[in-house]
Amino acid sequence: MQVSVESTSELGRKMTVHLPEEKIQVQVDSRLQNLARQAKIDGFRPGKVPASIIRQRYGSGVRQEVVTDLIQSSFYEAVQAEKLNPAAGPTITPNLASEGEGFSYIADFEVLPEVATIALAQLQVKKFVSAVGNEDLDAMVLKLRGQRKTWREVERPAALEDRLTISFQGEADGSNFTDGTVEDFHVVLGSNQLIPGFEDKLVGRTANSEDAFTLDFPADYGAAHLAGKTAEFKVKVSKIEESVLPELDEEFVKSFGIESGLIDDFRADIKSNMEREMTRALQARTKTSVMDALYSSNAALTLPAVMVSQELDSLIKPYVDTAKKNNQPIDQDALRQRLEPTAKRRVVLGLALGKLMEDHNVKADPKRVRAVIDDIALSYEDPQQVVNWYYSNKEQLSQVEGMVLEDQVVDIVLSHAQVTEEQIPFGELMQPQSGA
Predict the structure, then answer these.
(1) Strands 12-19 and 2-7
(2) Which CATH number does the domain 2-110 belong to among 1.10.1200.120, 1.20.1250.20, 3.30.70.1050, 3.40.605.10?
(3) Long-range contacts of residues 283-289, Cβ cutoff 8 Å, at least 24 apart
(4) What are the DSSP calls for 108-122, one per residue?
(5) pTM tops 0.70, yes or no
(6) pLDDT tens digits, residue range 360-394?
(7) 404 within 8 A of 368, measured Cβ to Cβ
């Protein structure tokens, strides 16, 4: 096998491979001999068909199969011999040649960039810490009571957090877009359930009152035919209700599975759950800080276009699937442009993490893998069944191992980097984080 390689760009490579005729013929002859033992051709007993007829009938197809297989195997032999590390599979262009002259092809591909050893001691990383205070616990108890609140009708003007029963209709550009009148619709004032401004118009209204007002739909409203349009609404309020929280008593406590019915036991159980969620959130925040530092130190890497494209495809797929499911149009070009920075960040971090795993010989710790799976299983009715499912499903187990590998790299970075502790209030910590 003859191999020549030329660079077409910083990461682009063009490799020409020539396979000698002898190598092709050895495999062709072997496959034809196997066919001869099995072939059924009229006029000949099985295994007695002359080799010339076997070659005449099957030779061309067998040669094509052999060449296809040899392209795959020879490509990987060639890149190993040339010490190349492809970023993805190649684009193959065959060079046509007559039988007896061997076979050659051109493989165009990109190689992975060289990631320099990361100077962990120079990285500046934040490690977040927090605590569940009494006020946080009180707020959670109030939230749980709110989840089981009931409604009581009142005879007073409507206020924020009241639930109103209304009937309404809306028109825009002279057309009714509510399909007549929407009857007996429940809305909690201040919930932002309806378009901006609608609920504000209902504050201070009384039962059996009617009103009309105009509002503008947001420019990015989901229904394109209403986005940015001015609409006129006619609304009738038929009922006003205020919320009633359940008493924090033995019955309420037992409804959450606290058999003692004691409020102190209830609060202790809630706090334990909150601290478990806090630990996860702190780890996620700290991990983001580590990833930010790793990205910043490797942001100048030249990235293989194929890897960025593949990452973009992965990011876009959920949007495309949702749009298809809802029969909505989607501008994929605009979406790719918006998500490209995220895709590049993910590729950079993947390369940086891979380098750290290689330099520090990181392997997924089986004990940590099991701990993650046990933690996931806790939220299911039959935890052992979930554990068994993960260990019988290689793909899912591999995903957990990938998470653990990242966490182990985070630990390595934290043990070497310049780490600053940052206190963060529990309420702020539990707010959703944006970003990749």
Answers:
(1) antiparallel
(2) 3.30.70.1050
(3) 283/407, 284/433, 285/126, 285/128, 285/424, 285/429, 285/433, 286/125, 286/126, 286/127, 286/128, 286/410, 286/414, 287/406, 287/407, 287/410, 288/433, 288/435, 289/125, 289/126, 289/127, 289/128
(4) EEEBPPPPPPP-GGG
(5) yes
(6) 999 999 999 999 999 899 889 899 999 999 999 99
(7) yes
